Amino acid sequence: MAERKDENLKELFENFVGPEQAKQAVEDIQRVEQMLEENPAPEPSEELQWQIKERICEALEKRRKVRSYWMPAYRAVAVAAVIIFVFVVSIELFKRPIEVSKPELIGYVAAIPAEVWEGSNIIEDDAELSVLSAEIAQIEDEYFTVQLDQGYGNGKDSLTELELELMDIDSEFWERIEI
Amino acid sequence: MDAHTELEEIIAGCQEGDAESFSRLVDLYSRRCYGYFFRMTGSRAVSDDLLSELFVKLVEKIGTFKGESFDSWLFKVTSNVFHDYLRRKYRDGKVIESRKEELEERIKQEQRRGSRKEDEQMDKLQEKIERLDGQTRELIMLRFYSQLSFKEIAKMRGEPIGTVMSKVHRGVRRLRELMG
Asked: Where does the pLDDT of residue A71 fall: very low under 50, low under 70, confident under 90, or very high at 90 and above?
């Protein structure tokens, strides 16, 4: 209703028709509204208005009664519905076997042979280690020989020879490991 | 207290189920709604029934009012009550019968009013209004009795504002022609 006061009919009509037609349209509307004001429709009688008010009171009373009658029932139904829902859901949950996703089987292979773990003498159990330890013992011997030779002036060549041998062993050892 | 605040207070009271607030609502709106019903049906008896039906329906519906324009909302309900009446009338196959009743009612009214000039003119106006097609008549009456703007009427009826304005303009031009 507030909008009606701010409504500019001429401007509104000008959005759809030319200014002359808009002016005519506004005049027509104002004339008819004036006719309706000058010839008012009959009004509802006082009696009718009282009857309506009485009917409203009855309808309100009825609504209040219905509410007070049905409200506890609605509440009970709502509570029962919740209980049944929870019950059904719980039964469904218990019925279904719990499926725990199993991880894929992962195989492990020992990098170190079982004999090595189980045996008391590692060097005896592992053939490669036996070879290696034999070589180490040999080097130790040679080292002592070199040390002894140092006094006779032949030590430097022997030391170089020993270093070469050590390098051989070292490379041979890593080759074995890579295999 | 301004009219808007007073109306808000009345609506709040109605939504709480307060009979006194409904009584004030009847005092505020019964004339305009009755005028709309009378202009649409041309019958006091039918307008009496429809006005009662409207306010009883408001008791149920007032909770659905969400605070937009109350006049727009109320006249939408009023228009729905009128259309329900039309549907009932057609469904019951009593169109001719009810038309007869309306005419009888009008004759009685005329007899009651005597030969006063204003009354004659009022009846003449109603007679011309009834010669308009239903949709146009309703738009003109909604505009006059609801006091809504064209924009609000267009929104209420879900029609483009241009269509509403064009229909109203055609209707009022025709009515002016008929009234001479």
From this structure: confident
In terms of Cβ atoms closer than 10 Å to its own Cβ (0-12, 13-18, 19+), residue A66 is exposed
Measured CA to CA in angstroms, residue B85 lies from B1, B31, B54, B145 at distances of 37, 19, 11, 19
Ranges of residues in chain B whose predicted pLDDT is under 70:
1, 93-99, 108-122
Q: Which residues numbered 95-124 in B keep a CB inside 8 Å of some CB on A?
A: 118, 121-122
Interval A74-131: pLDDT, tens: 888 889 999 999 988 888 887 766 666 666 666 666 666 666 666 666 666 667 777 7
Residue B2's Cβ-side half-sphere holds a number of Cα atoms within 13 Å equal to 2
State the count of interchain CB pairs (< 8 A) between A and B. Answer: 113
The CATH classification of domain B3-179, taken from the options 1.10.579.10, 1.10.1740.10, 1.20.1050.10, 2.50.20.10: 1.10.1740.10
- Can you say how many angstroms the Cα of residue B162 is from the centroid of all Cα atoms in its chain? 22
Residues B168 and B160: their CA atoms lie apart, in Å, by: 13
Which helix (H) or strand (E) segment is A76 a member of? helix A46-95
B22 interaction partners in chain A (CB closer than 8 Å): 53, 56, 60
- Residue B45 contacts A where some CB pair is shorter than 8 Å: no
B114: left (phi over 0), alpha (psi -120 to 50) or beta: left
CB B171, CB B139: distance < 8 Å: yes
ipTM of the complex as predicted: 0.80
Domain residue spans of chain B:
3-179
